[in-house]
Structures are given as structure tokens and as C-alpha cells.
Amino acid sequence: MKIAIISASVRTGRNSHRVVLFFKNYIEANNLASTEVLDLHHYQFPIFEERLKFQKDPSPKTIEFAEKIRSADGIIIVTPEYNGGYPASLKNVIDLLNDDWKRKPIAISTVSAGSFGGMNVITSLQYSLWKLQAWTVPAMFPVAKVGEAYDEQGNPTDKTGTEKRAKSFINELLWCVNAKIKMEKQL
Ligand SMILES: Cc1cc2nc3c(=O)[nH]c(=O)nc-3n(C[C@H](O)[C@H](O)[C@H](O)COP(=O)(O)O)c2cc1C
Question: How far is ligand 1, taken at its centre, from the CA of residue 44, in Å?
Fold first, then answer.
């Protein structure tokens, strides 16, 4: 099983990437799935001009990104909260791919420097993904005060508590992925 983890912050000095590293380490250490980090800071996509399917000459990195989303069994999106919403970098790739999100199980982790764990992002991001017929998983993983909660390598300050929350969050995603795989075999 392949889980892609989207790191949505492209900001210099970003901290939400710490949570990405945590998920990657946790999933691999517990042999839950293989993981691949899709780092939007690394991709540096230009501002959206048209959906991939209508682009005449898409860039190799756009094609690569799309292929990684297509081939992932499930996705974790780690997004910061910027002024009560999710960042433009994330909307940029959501709009880019369009059909590839359909029926894709997606779990959302919201991250903030403040005390509320980026919770303002949830409804707007879920709504955008729902419009594209993605299957957003009904589980949450809000991270408050991220700079204190994780070090730069993604090690949580409260290892026991964080891993307990991660276990139930990832279990929900894997349950949805497995249910989808089973259903597709029956069709
Ligand atoms: C443009 C901008 C807007 C922000 N707005 C909020 C906010 O509304 N609420 C909040 O708790 N933190 C806010 N933050 C702080 C981020 O949540 C914080 O930087 C956190 O580490 C996640 O983003 P990062 O991965 O880019 O670091 C904002 C940061 C930036 C750069």
C-alpha cells in the first residue's frame, strides 16, 4: 500500500513540514505502508493557468506529480493555516489535477503556530476536495504550536500522546483505503 504525504507549505522556514516527517517516520517504523513525500516547496509549481488535462505541453514535474497522486492508494495532506484558510500552494495543485482526486481517500492534518491547530482550514479544504469527489476521511489531526510540538526532524515532544493520536488518524485512512480496494475487486 502506498501513501503519499503532501507537504503544502512552501514558506521559507516552514514548520508544518515537521509533521510531514513525523507521519513518514511513524508509518514506516510501524510497517503500515510505504510512503512518499510530495513536497510542494520542492515542486515550486507556477501559479495555476489551466488544468493538466487541458495543457498542451505540461512540464515534466507536473506529469510526475500527477502520476504520484494517481498511483497513491491514499493521501495525507499536511497543511498550514494561513489567515484562516489553506495556502495558495495547495489550491494550486488541487485545481491542477481535477479528475485524479476522484474517490481518492484523503486524510487532512492541519497545522498552526497558534493554539487552535489550524482548525479553521478543515471546512474549506474538505469542501474543495468534496467538490472534486475525493473521499475525505472523517478523522482529524490538528497540530497546535507546531514549533514546540515537534523538532526539525519530526520527533514529537509528547511521543506517547502524539503516536496514540496518529494511530487512530492513520487507521481511519487505511480502513478507507482497504475498503476501497475490496470494493473495486468486487466490481
Ligand atoms: C501568511 C501567514 C498567515 C498565518 N495565519 C495564521 C492563522 O490564521 N492562524 C494561526 O494559528 N497561525 C497562522 N500562521 C502561522 C502558521 O500557522 C505557522 O507558520 C505554522 O508553522 C504553519 O505554517 P508553516 O508550515 O508555513 O510554518 C500564519 C502564517 C503565515 C505565514
Answer: 19
- pLDDT tens-digit profile of 66-110? 999 999 999 999 999 999 999 999 999 999 998 999 999 999 999
Kindly give the number of the ligand 1 atom that is closest to the alpha carbon of 15.
Answer: 27
* Cβ density class 85-122: b for 16+ within 10 Å, e for less: bbbebbbbbbebbeebbeebbbbbbbbbeeeebbebbb
Distance 78 CA to ligand 1 centre (A): 13
Query: Whole-prediction pTM value?
Result: 0.98
pLDDT tens-digit map of 134-174: 999 999 999 999 999 999 999 999 999 999 999 999 999 99
Share of the chain above pLDDT 90, in %: 98
